[in-house]
Amino acid sequence: MTYKTHLSMGILFSSIVFLNVDKLELSTSLAIILFFSTLLGASTPDLDTPAGGLWQKIPAGSILSRIVRPVFIGGHRHLSHSLIGMGIFIFLYSLLLKWLGLFFPLLPITSYYILLSFVLGYASHLFADSLTEDGVPLLFPLDYHFGIPPNPFQKVRIKTGQWFENLVVYPLVNLAILIIIYQYYIHIVKR
Ligand SMILES: [Zn+2]
Fold first, then answer.
1. According to the model, what pLDDT value does residue 131 have?
2. How far is the centre of ligand 1, averaged over its atoms, from the C-alpha of 46 (Å)?
3. How many Å lie between the centroid of ligand 1 and the Cα of residue 184?
4. Which of 15, 33, 1, 26 lies closest to 177, judged by CA?
5. At the N or C end, where does the chain have fewer CB atoms within 10 A?
6. DSSP 3-state assignment of 61?
7. 1: closest CA among 96, 130, 111?
8. CA angle 9, 118, 122 (to 5 degrees)
9. Which whole-number Å values give the CA distances from 25 to 88, 97, 155, 162, in the listed order?
C-alpha cells in the first residue's frame, strides 16, 4: 500500500479501539499524541525502503535511510514486516517512552495508551500490506508471505498504488474514520 493509505489505515485502527470500543474521553493533548504515535507506528515498517514516506519527510532522509538500511535484514518487506520485527520495534518504542517519561512524567495508563497507539499503527500496516499481491513475511526469517485472501488467490489481492487502492480502499478507510468520529461525538454529546 502507499504511504497515505497506511496512515489512514493506522488512524482507522486507532479510532476503532480508542473511540469505538473503549470510548475513551481523551483530552485534546492526549488525542494529538495518540494521533502522531499511531502515524509513527504505521510508518515504521516501511523504514526499510528509501522511498518510505517517513524518510521523505525528514531532512537528508534518503541518506539516513541508506545508513540504517543494514538494520533491516533482508531489505524491503522482510524483518520490519514480520512479527519478530514488530516485537523489536514495539520494545524500542517502549524504551523511548520510558526515556521520555524521565523528562515528562506520564501516568502509567497514558504511557500504555501511547504504546498501544503505536502497536495499532504497526499492526494496521502489516494488515494493509497483507491485502496486496506481495503479502507479508509474518514469520520471517521463514520466507513464506502471508496474504488475504491466502495463496493461491494472491492475484485477486490489491496492487499497490493502482486504481483500486486509490479510488476504493483509500476513500472507504477515510469514510469509516469519519463515521467513527461522528458516532463518538454523538456519544459524548448525549452524556
Ligand atoms: Zn510496508
1. 96
2. 5
3. 30
4. 15
5. C
6. helix
7. 130
8. 50
9. 30, 22, 43, 38
What's the 2 CA to ligand 1 centre distance in angstroms?
8
**Could you read off the pLDDT of 70-128 as tens digits, one per residue?**
666 556 788 999 999 999 999 999 999 999 988 888 888 899 999 999 999 999 999 99
Percent above pLDDT 70 for the chain: 90
d(CA 6, CA 125): 6
Determine the distance separating the centroid of ligand 1 and the alpha carbon of 28, expressed in angstroms: 30
Which of 36, 39, 38, 64 lies closest to 50, judged by CA? Answer: 64
Return all residues near 121 (Cβ < 8 A) that are at least 6 apart. 10, 13, 14, 37, 38, 39, 40, 41, 42, 43, 44
Q: Which tens digits make up the pLDDT trace of 34-83?
A: 999 999 999 999 988 766 677 677 777 767 666 666 666 556 788 999 99
